[in-house]
């Protein structure tokens, strides 16, 4: 059984931590929260401080993929989620896996070029 790190045990993430994960600014996350209220709804503390769970982050990842990676307009992304949420989630997972594979291949290519 793998050892759990503190990151694995963390229940809530701040808006600044989530913004850094996606390399976006906090204002964009607040905007997406207003535009996708069914998907992105972080808990707010007594002073209005947003607390994001891993599920919230997963929903942001899906919106990020639709809007930033695939280039859909907000309305089109909202419609894609409404019509076929499960299919959109699967597509997002595939795109993320392919992006990771591409990064690994580029790294291997660089290492092989250094050997020549």
Describe this structure in words.
This protein is mainly alpha-helical. The chain has a single domain, classed as Multidrug-efflux Transporter Regulator, Chain: A, Domain 2, CATH 1.10.1660.10. It is built from six helices and two strands. Strands 1-2 form a two-stranded antiparallel sheet. β1 and β2 form a beta hairpin. α4 (54-69) packs across α6.
Strand content: under 5%
Alpha carbon gap, first and last residue: 40 Å
Rounded to an integer, what's the Rg over CA atoms?
Answer: 17 Å
Strand arrangement in the largest pleated sheet = 1-2
Topology:
Elements (H helix, E strand, L loop, with lengths): L5 H4 L5 H8 L3 H10 L7 E2 L5 E2 L2 H16 L4 H10 L1 H31 L1
Antiparallel strand pairs: 1-2
Helix pairs in contact: 4-6
Write a compact overview of the structure shown.
By secondary structure, the chain is mostly helical. The chain contains six helices and two strands; from the N terminus they run H-H-H-E-E-H-H-H.
Which features would summarize this protein structure in a list?
116 residues; Multidrug-efflux Transporter Regulator, Chain: A, Domain 2; 6 helices
